[in-house]
Write a structure and sequence with these properties.
The structure holds two protein chains of two kinds. Chain A has one domain: Beta Barrel (Lipocalin). In chain A, 0% of the residues lie in helices and 43% in strands. In chain A, a hairpin with a 7-residue loop joins strand 7 and strand 8. In chain B, strands 1, 2, 3, 4, 5 and 6 form a six-stranded mixed sheet that branches. A two-stranded parallel sheet of chain B has the order 7-8. In chain B, helix 2 links the parallel strand 1 and strand 2. Chain B starts with 16 loop residues before the first helix and ends in a 6-residue tail after the last helix. Classes of the chains: A mainly beta, B alpha/beta.
Chain lengths: 111, 373
């Protein structure tokens, strides 16, 4: 995980794996934390997002049989702290996300 | 009824066109066709066009594969922990669990005895006596949900014949998973249920709040064709679990919810979050419904009928005759005419073809992707 505080004008790092800390969700956004951050065990499988430097992203999302099912997509920057993720065939608008720069280890997926 | 695909879009591999092609053929067509057939049958049971013919309790022979890394001795759970899990299953699937008394009054009439019990196998696939517990060492520190634990070649343990035994793999699971299942109709070589060792049973390494043995109850519910009670629609209220007597609810519940929790205009009683097929803590789930029993019956008299056949002959003997695939049909009053089956089959074939074409279209879109934002 390369998440960490950015400085003004330096894009906040996003590559690596982020894990859904749904206990911290707000009405406005789902909260993800870097992989490795201790999170309590949960029956609801935690969604994961793997961002790679080549612009690809893999989402591992809970499936009806409690596995984590994969779907692949692409991500791109929309600003120093903002990114967008698109999953082809998902028939959805791209997800808009922001990487927190105050503590540098939160990825917020906007609702 | 809203068309519902209970299975998300499978993963796509940008680098392997042949892999995509093979997967689409094998998984999308065959598996979807199987699932459509299973769903048709479940619908017939739900709507009363077909009635269950089984009588009495069926006992499922179970083999527990304890896959453990010797560097972490705790993974090699003890026999007592395994027996404690079987005890929980035999209470939960018979509505004999003491906490069933906590079901809200409004739903007490819906509580169902599923009439399924579980017993560690006493005869192995070769006909030899067994305790129904296999212990396999592994070099792996943990497993994910991609089924490596289900084969010795990938560091796990091979299943016993899945038409004669329920295979339960117990191991260290990564990614925070407590367990996962395989629905009926999937590949036999991976058929069964995987449980994290610390969410298995009620003693030993079992840890709160998942030390009530309910992870296995939930996953075996899937193995018997039960869906999540909220319909896996990410809170959309558009799909349900295909069981009429469970209220439609928006999303999963977690922890220990307070009754009532209303969503999807399902007041005044709200979500049936105490159902085993929600995501609440072990001490907060304690019921199956009559409608869920009908789905289980459709499964046991359909795709998993081999367990009923074995039950009527001799339990889990390797010399058992080849299982009948649809034993209930010839005996069931009101059996739907073959013409109707043909009509449904044609309808399903058309729908499956459309879905496969959509998958291919999406895969091509991924290969030649241009960012859509």
């Amino acid at each position: 995980m390369t998440g960490g505080s950015g400085t003004e004008g330096t894009p906040a790092p996003v590559t690596g794996t982020w894990v859904h800390a749904f206990e911290e969700d707000t009405p406005a956004a789902a909260v993800y934390r870097p992989e490795g951050r201790p999170l309590p065990p949960a029956r609801r499988p935690r969604r994961r997002l793997e961002f790679r430097p080549d612009g690809t992203v893999t989402e591992h999302r809970p499936a009806p049989d409690d596995r984590l099912a994969e779907r692949k997509g692409r991500w791109e920057r929309r600003g120093p702290e903002r990114i967008a993720v698109d999953f082809p065939g998902g028939h959805e608008a791209p997800l808009v996300m922001s990487v927190s720069r105050d503590d540098g280890d939160r990825l917020l997926v906007e609702n | 009824m809203t068309e519902y695909n209970p299975f998300p879009a499978p993963s796509r591999d940008l680098c392997g066109a042949m892999h995509v092609h093979r997967r689409l053929l094998n998984e999308s067509m065959t598996y979807r066709a199987q699932r459509a057939r299973i769903e048709n049958r479940a619908l017939q049971y739900e709507t009363g066009r077909r009635a269950s013919v089984r009588s009495g309790v069926v006992t499922i022979p179970v083999v527990v594969h304890v896959v453990h890394n010797p560097s972490t001795p705790a993974q090699n759970i003890g026999d007592a922990q395994i027996h404690s899990q079987i005890d929980v299953l035999n209470r939960d699937f018979r509505a004999a669990n003491p906490d069933v008394s906590r079901v809200p009054d409004a739903w007490k009439p819906l509580v169902a005895d599923i009439e399924v019990e579980f017993a560690l196998a006493t005869v192995d696939p070769h006909g030899a006596p067994t305790e129904g517990i296999v212990r396999a060492e592994t070099d792996r520190t943990g497993f994910d949900s991609h089924d490596a634990v289900k084969a010795a070649a990938s560091g796990g343990a091979d299943p016993w014949p899945s038409d004669q035994y329920l295979n339960l793999w117990v191991c260290q699971l990564g990614e925070g998973l407590l367990g996962y299942a395989q629905f009926p109709g999937g590949p036999p070589q991976t058929d069964g249920v995987v449980i994290l060792h610390s969410a298995f049973g009620t003693t030993g390494t079992a840890a709160a709040p998942y030390n009530g043995g309910r992870t296995a109850t939930h996953e075996i519910g899937h193995w018997l064709d039960l869906f999540h009670i909220w319909g896996d629609d990410d809170g959309a209220c558009s799909n349900d679990d295909r069981v009429a007597d469970t209220p439609n609810q928006a999303d999963s519940n977690v922890g220990k919810p307070a009754f009532p929790h209303v969503s999807c205009n399902n007041g005044p009683n709200g979500d049936m979050f105490m159902n085993y097929m929600d995501y609440v803590d072990d001490d907060s789930m304690f019921m199956f419904t009559r409608g869920q029993r009908e789905r289980v019956n459709a499964c046991l008299e359909g795709t998993r009928a081999s367990f009923l056949v074995a039950h009527q002959a001799a339990p889990a003997t390797p010399a058992a005759p080849a299982p009948e695939t649809r034993p209930a049909e010839a005996q069931t009053p009101g059996y739907v005419a073959q013409d109707a089956d043909v009509e449904r089959l044609l309808h399903d074939t058309e729908r499956l073809t459309r879905e496969a074409l959509t998958d291919i279209h999406d895969a091509l879109g991924l290969v030649g992707h241009r960012f859509g934002g």
